């Protein structure tokens, strides 16, 4: 009974916060960014043994308007450095060696402390995630409809193995994996305006980043809006995720790729986030 009451109160609190953002705070976001920083849109990512996928991922996002990549290598054993060297040399990638345990949030905080003011917008993305603005030719054009909001949540479109046992390195990821869920997943990743202070550094920074918005000098907790311009505390609060609804943007999440790619990740005791790697359990894959 206590657990039921606790969960009820937690959900009620979340709904109240969403309602407050909808009714009072969201209409006040009239201030557009000045865009006087070095980069307009950047991605911060941490990776391990992703050399074979880095080139496609970087060049895809370059084509849709991402200006810079802040990348953190976490104990990779492959030839990632050779793949990234041309992008580092041309100034597209800032690369750090970051051999810490459960390093993901630590890497994001390092970026925030050292590079936040170099870019107007940042997304903490993974190498298996691809931004897809569906209503514009690129990220900059798409962002014009959302730039007054401090944080925008873009939902995942989930892709599996497409029935493949082995990944074909002669083909692109986005060519090989074409079987997905019909609708959107109720989780995604955020695009964050760095003019605002991030309030908490936990797992929610991925999926529902909350920032402080000053009103009359008082910092107010502000939730992200989703691609439907509705306030959300993660999940699908006020979000209509039906497959038939027009989706302004999505993140294609190639979560498993072929079995040989996924099974390689089962070898790690931990990963960049989890101390005990959940992928080691075959049931997790199923």
How would you sum up this structure, described in words?
The protein has 286 residues and is α/β, with parallel strands linked by helices. Helices cover 29% and strands 23% of the residues. The protein has helices at 2-25, 51-63, 80-89, 104-115, 139-143, 173-176, 204-207, 259-265, 282-285; strands at 39-47, 68-73, 93-97, 119-124, 129-133, 151-159, 188-193, 197-198, 211-215, 218-222, 225-226, 249-254. The strands form two sheets. Strands 1, 2, 3, 4, 5, 6, 7, 11 and 12 form a nine-stranded mixed sheet that branches. A three-stranded antiparallel sheet has the order 8-9-10, with no helix packed on it. Strand 2 (68-73), helix 3 (80-89) and strand 3 (93-97) form a beta-alpha-beta unit. Helix 2 (51-63) packs parallel to helix 3 (80-89). The longest helix has 24 residues, at 2-25. Residues 237-244 have low confidence and may be disordered.
SSE pattern: HEHEHEHEEHEHEEHEEEEHH
SS summary, helix count: 9
The count of strands amounts to 12
Low-confidence stretches: 237-244
């Amino acid at each position: 009974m206590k657990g039921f009451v606790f969960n009820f109160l937690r959900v009620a609190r979340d709904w109240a916060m969403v309602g407050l953002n909808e009714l009072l705070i969201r209409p006040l976001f009239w201030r557009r960014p000045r865009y006087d920083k070095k980069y307009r849109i950047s991605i911060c990512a941490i990776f391990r043994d992703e050399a074979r996928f880095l080139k496609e991922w970087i060049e895809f996002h370059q084509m849709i308007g991402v200006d810079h990549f802040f990348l953190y290598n976490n104990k990779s054993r492959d030839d990632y450095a050779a793949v990234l060297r041309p992008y580092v040399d041309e100034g597209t990638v800032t690369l750090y060696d970051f051999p810490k345990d459960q390093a993901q949030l630590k890497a994001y905080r390092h970026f925030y402390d050292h590079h936040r003011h170099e870019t107007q917008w940042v997304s903490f993305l993974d190498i298996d995630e691809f931004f897809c603005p569906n209503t514009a030719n690129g990220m900059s054009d798409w962002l014009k409809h959302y730039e007054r909001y401090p944080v925008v949540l873009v939902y995942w479109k989930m892709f599996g193995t497409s029935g493949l046992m082995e990944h074909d390195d002669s083909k692109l990821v986005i060519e090989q994996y074409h079987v997905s869920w019909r609708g959107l997943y109720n989780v995604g990743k955020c695009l964050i305006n760095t003019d605002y202070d991030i309030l908490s550094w936990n797992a929610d920074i991925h999926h529902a980043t909350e920032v402080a918005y000053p009103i009359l000098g008082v910092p107010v907790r502000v939730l992200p809006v989703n691609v439907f311009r509705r306030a959300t505390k993660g999940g699908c609060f006020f979000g209509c995720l039906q497959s038939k609804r027009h989706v302004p943007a999505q993140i294609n999440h190639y979560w498993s790729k072929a079995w040989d790619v996924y099974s390689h990740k089962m070898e790690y005791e931990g990963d960049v986030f989890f101390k005990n790697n959940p992928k080691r359990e075959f049931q997790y894959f199923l």
